[in-house]
């Protein structure tokens, strides 16, 4: 004990003296003569019998009694004696703020744990000194140091008595006294029971806090408020939700009140730690699944956040095989990283660091997917080339969704009328969304009790989403025309002349058969593109599905070009009739040249297209030649160019493994070269693979014959299964080489849509009200928000979150173990 309480006492003043009568000196000796437990004697082996009172002067010369103290000047109680509470007639006074102040023996009755040191004129806490808390947090002023500034002493004692560390120590003291009284009760077991209850209570407290934090993160809601002071009406979602739950959960409410003000575990720092612990658990789950799969693909994209920082989204794609469920495709978001530089070296270094942090073991990176930017796709110094130095089998795949977007962009570049049509649509949207115009547009729809639909703005980057814009315009076309006609009326003197002129110009363009034709043709084309885009962006799609869908769309476009014009003509004619749009041009009076004004034309000498000679059929044929055919031909040409097979072996192999309708399906001639590309890392025996593919193909053919014995196809030639249904027929568990090859084909990426989904989450999380959010918090919130299924399970049972949180660093203010 002596080593724990090394005071190093020094006198602050030598002016005041304390004198004792003989009886008082005897009483002082009674309280100070006992040597503290565990202290050692001086060099002579005996305790010193005389001490100077230092700060308070020497004893009176008239007193014949000397004061006996321990070797280190401690005249406090021991474990067996209890607290030392000397009852003196007077106590040394100290002048503080012009007033004389001293210890008051009446305090013993109010604070039973209080003890007084005569030698130091100081107060100590007996229970905290003899029965220290295992929390590792104690108030040094009441144990190792002393309290002898008597101003506001009662306030200091009361504050100490309300601290968690004192409560634990005091409880230990009481248990000790009770064990001495009862004799048969083990103090160890009582302390252990109290400790267990304390730990259980703390875990319940942090579990509730974790659930609140994960819930807010899953919903994309802000945790903190602008003003979190106690008197604030809105302290933010987190604190307000804690307050709400405290009202309905009394145990949680009492626990919040009992926590020290400096250790409530509701601060922003604790929020960040719990968020990070949750996100790390999700990342560890993903890493474990990738390690189990053994194959993975890296997917990366870049976008700006609300604070104009370039954020890199890093994701992984892998296929996990389970005998009961078959193949389960995963595309998982890992992290946001602020891009310091956008050169290939910096980007590739950041990607490698993030993949390295996952702690992947024996995982082969077989693919990488980015957009077509040169810094990413460059085969010499681009990111894909640098990653291939570390992952030789990582074949680069240009995002198919980006390719499709570029196809539609190029159509507008190659067919000028299509580009002009979309420019006109953008101008129409701007006009219709003006406050005055928009009000009239809504009123016209409500007048007819129609559902109010708003025109959709055209997206500059997601062209396939323009189908929605065209569809809304198609269904509300007559209201658009009516609004334009309403504002073309210049009789209203209050109307803005600029608005009138703009309305007339737009009405003249919209009320034309050419505009309607563009609307119908592009709607038809974009409807097919929309379905293809959704397939390419689905997280469970694969290259086999992508190739099949691309070929299907091309076939539909070819069929539409050959025989789809009559159907489009019906739609064009219907719109024109409903809105009184003339399908025939108005005859134009030809002006005679001045030199022939007095002449009479007897017969023409050449042919010239006369408006009055044109028929409706001629007009429709002109629309077909100048609008319909150029747009469809441009689409087919760009699709063929953009989706040309850059690696024949890969595409044929994927086609042969994942496309049951393909002539290459389960044919070793197509799949063999594909597997050879990954021979260094893929544990597949090509000879056994050939035999397993023949067995699988026969199983499917036999199933077909049993289902449709009357088919006109020769026996064993017709395969009608999709991959999902085929997967249920083939016993992959008994065909390991085919299973591994199929897993490889499924793992290869199709698009970087998973990154786009993470950017949508980023805009929702880091909005303009939360633009100062740190990157680590953004990344952790993004993982929790995007991985909704995983985070929901952790919200239901956040034990692992609390466990990881408790292991981060030594928690000195709350017991968790």
TrEMBL record:
Residues 16-30 have a biased composition (Basic and acidic residues). Residues 99-197 form the TTF-type domain. GO terms for molecular function: protein dimerization activity. InterPro entries: DUF4371, HATC_C_dom, RNaseH-like_sf, Znf_TTF. Residues 16-93 are annotated as: Disordered. Pfam families: Dimer_Tnp_hAT, DUF4371. It comes from the Eukaryota. Residues 39-48 have a biased composition (Low complexity). Residues 57-67 have a biased composition (Polar residues). This is Zinc finger MYM-type protein 1. It comes from Holothuria leucospilota.
